[in-house]
């Protein structure tokens, strides 16, 4: 089977080489992206697939409209934009013309099924209403905060203390990933994976999510989509690994669901069951629908906050003046001796500005795509045909001089304030358009867990920095890797020093 796959791929590549002798047609994109008859821009795409982020960003900078078009073999063309007006049109103004679409849901359908982050139409709408209701409940916020406090004080801080006292180097990205997985599983499933016990291996579910997310994301970067579909049909290579990982995820979550149902049946009243799984089961959905829903929420929460915090801690190591201002903000909270309180976190605007600035430069989700249901015209004049893939690009948007100014490449949390914050005065955060900064999406699909994410990140950053210095041991600039959730290649190796 592997030989057959390799042969077919070789035939496709040889075909590309033959077509290279053809004269490229003039691209409709102002970026002058080479486009050949039949195969479009696939040669340029394949040449740059290892650096798509920078390639797209460079092309978008050259484009007067901050929009480019990429044509690929056997695929509808892709329109990529870093134009905030286009983003608003896609995510809000003409929302119903830009669903995720079947080409996108196919990529993640094996893993996420019909969950909220991989569905459209009525299926999405019904899940969104239920989830939105639950996320506005005070009981869920309080439940989440108590889990967060317990995980930080009883696990994260002791792990870092032990590493610091022992003089050990730790991968801080890995520690934050384990922490985030614990929190999201407790909130979503009412199940404790205890990943921060570094003396034993992580659960199979943790590893399976990693593998499934990695391979599902790489499907999207295949120059010829038929390649991964053929491998899936033959059950070979990465697609075989993906199938095994997805089976582990589905079986593990289904077992947790069945155990939870038994507990609820024995307990009778579900009003005191605060995790999302209990709430979804109480709503009467069938087991498969509940499984898809909680898997979607785990995928959304497991690595996004840890990725944002990883990049922020690295940026702070390069910007000591910013770290000092965070410490000033934290130390001004009277309840710090008992741990940061809920109201303290809401008022900590400087940490929020730092998090926003880190996510501007290193967004947890580098790009997101929709598919046009009907022909349309974007505000910048780009014509969209039915079936076109339309991608908005947070990574590139954070690097556009026309969006953020000439100093876009500088880590400047003060850009998020109305005016320069001075010591002793309370800084006022700007109201920045979510279409200029779409890291939590925007419009009807805006992330319903946005405020909980900021709550978690503020608590961790404040609690850790007030106790420890985080000192990276590698001088090389880290590499940003954009999978389903972006991460730092090789992790963030650090030494921990008590303050």
UniProtKB/TrEMBL annotation:
Keywords annotated in UniProt: Heme, Iron, Membrane, Metal-binding, Monooxygenase, Oxidoreductase, Signal, Transmembrane, Transmembrane helix
Signal peptide (residue range): 1-21
Topology versus the membrane: Single-pass membrane protein
Residues engaged in binding heme: 447
Gene Ontology CC, one term: membrane
Superkingdom of the source species: Eukaryota
Subcellular location: Membrane
Principal subcellular localisation of the protein: membrane
GO molecular function, one term: heme binding
Cofactor(s) this protein requires: heme
Family: Belongs to the cytochrome P450 family.
Protein name: Uncharacterized protein
Record organism: Arabis alpina
């Amino acid at each position: 089977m592997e030989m057959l796959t390799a042969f077919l791929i070789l035939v496709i590549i040889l075909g590309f080489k033959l077509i290279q002798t053809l004269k490229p047609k003039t691209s409709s994109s102002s970026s002058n992206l080479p486009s050949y008859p039949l195969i479009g821009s696939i040669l340029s795409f394949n040449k740059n697939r290892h650096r798509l982020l920078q390639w797209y960003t460079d092309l978008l900078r050259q484009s007067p409209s901050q929009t480019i078009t990429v044509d690929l073999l056997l695929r509808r063309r892709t329109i990529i934009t870093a134009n905030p007006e286009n983003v608003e049109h896609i995510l809000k103004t003409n929302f119903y013309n830009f669903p995720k679409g079947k080409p996108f849901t196919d990529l993640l359908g094996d893993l996420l099924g019909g969950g909220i982050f991989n569905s459209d139409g009525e299926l999405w709408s019904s899940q969104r209403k239920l989830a939105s209701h639950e996320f506005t409940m005070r009981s869920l916020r309080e439940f989440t905060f108590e889990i967060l406090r317990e995980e930080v004080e009883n696990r994260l801080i002791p792990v870092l203390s032990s590493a610091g006292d022992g003089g050990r180097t730790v991968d801080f990205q890995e520690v934050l990933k384990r922490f985030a997985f614990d929190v999201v599983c407790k909130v979503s499933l009412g199940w404790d994976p205890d990943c921060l016990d570094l003396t034993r291996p992580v659960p199979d579910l943790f590893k399976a999510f990693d593998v499934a997310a990695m391979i599902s994301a790489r499907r999207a970067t295949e120059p010829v989509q038929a390649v991964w579909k053929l491998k899936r049909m033959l059950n070979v290579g990465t697609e075989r690994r993906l199938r095994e990982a997805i089976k582990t995820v589905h079986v593990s979550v289904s077992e947790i669901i069945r155990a939870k149902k038994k507990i609820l049946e024995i307990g009778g009243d579900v009003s005191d069951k605060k995790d999302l799984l209990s709430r979804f089961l109480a709503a009467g959905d069938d087991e498969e629908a509940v499984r898809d829903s909680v898997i979607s929420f785990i995928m959304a929460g497991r690595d996004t906050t840890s990725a944002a915090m990883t990049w922020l801690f690295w940026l702070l190591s390069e910007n000591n003046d910013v770290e000092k201002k965070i410490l000033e903000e934290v130390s001004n909270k009277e309840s710090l001796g008992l741990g940061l309180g809920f109201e303290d976190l809401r008022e900590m605007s400087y940490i929020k500005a730092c998090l926003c600035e880190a996510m501007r430069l290193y967004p947890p989700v580098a790009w997101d795509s929709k598919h046009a249901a009907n022909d349309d015209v974007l505000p910048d004049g780009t014509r969209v045909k039915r079936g076109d893939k339309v991608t908005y690009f947070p990574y590139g948007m954070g690097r556009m001089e026309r969006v953020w100014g000439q100093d876009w490449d500088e880590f400047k949390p003060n850009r998020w304030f109305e005016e320069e914050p001075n010591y002793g005065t309370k800084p006022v955060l700007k109201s920045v358009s979510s279409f200029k900064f779409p890291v939590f999406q925007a419009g009807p699909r805006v992330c319903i867990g946005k405020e909980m994410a900021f709550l978690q990140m503020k608590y961790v950053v404040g609690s850790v920095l007030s106790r420890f210095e985080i000192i990276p041991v590698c001088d090389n600039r880290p590499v940003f890797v954009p999978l389903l959730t972006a991460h730092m290649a090789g992790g963030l190796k650090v030494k921990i020093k008590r303050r």
